[in-house]
Write a structure and sequence with these properties.
Blueprint: E1 4-7, E2 10-12, E3 18-24, E4 34-39, E5 46-51, E6 58-60, E7 68-73, E8 78-83, E9 92-98, E10 115-116, E11 120-124
Parallel strand pairs: 2-11
Antiparallel strand pairs: 1-3, 3-8, 4-5, 4-9, 5-6, 7-8, 9-10, 9-11
Length: 126
């Protein structure tokens, strides 16, 4: 069972930055495609970004393009979501998730992911 732990959330002013981390204590971490999702109060969970385990392909939701960047450091079993120019509408609980290691395509569909972290709160407010 793959266990994921998110960190790095917090309160930030509009225009500020945060870097979220998703860490797993498991070998062969580099075989897992990782996605970041978020859920705002009263809204459905939505895909934000993903990074493929097969070729490093990344994908970003249109609303975060140019502001967010996803990357991974397999030596640290960690995937990062760098969030710049944050807006109040980015406020949500952010979750990282991993696909089955047999399914390595990057996708923002939450149903494609098997393992989930507990989430970290991001609040953008002045």
């Amino acid at each position: 069972q793959l266990q994921l732990v998110e960190s790095g959330g917090g309160l930030v002013q509009p225009g500020g930055s945060l870097r979220l981390s998703c860490t797993a204590s498991r070998f062969a971490w580099d075989y897992y495609t990782i996605g970041w999702f978020r859920q705002a109060p009263g809204k459905e969970r939505e895909g934000v970004s993903c990074i493929s385990s097969s070729d490093g392909t990344t994908y970003l939701q249109d609303s975060v393009k140019g502001r967010f960047t996803i990357s991974r450091d397999n030596t640290k079993n960690t995937v990062y979501l760098q969030m710049n120019s944050l807006k109040p509408e980015d406020t949500a609980i952010y979750y990282c998730a991993a696909r089955s290691r047999l399914l390595r395509t990057c996708t923002l569909s939450s149903s494609a992911y098997m393992y989930w972290g507990q989430g970290t709160q991001v609040t953008v407010s002045s």
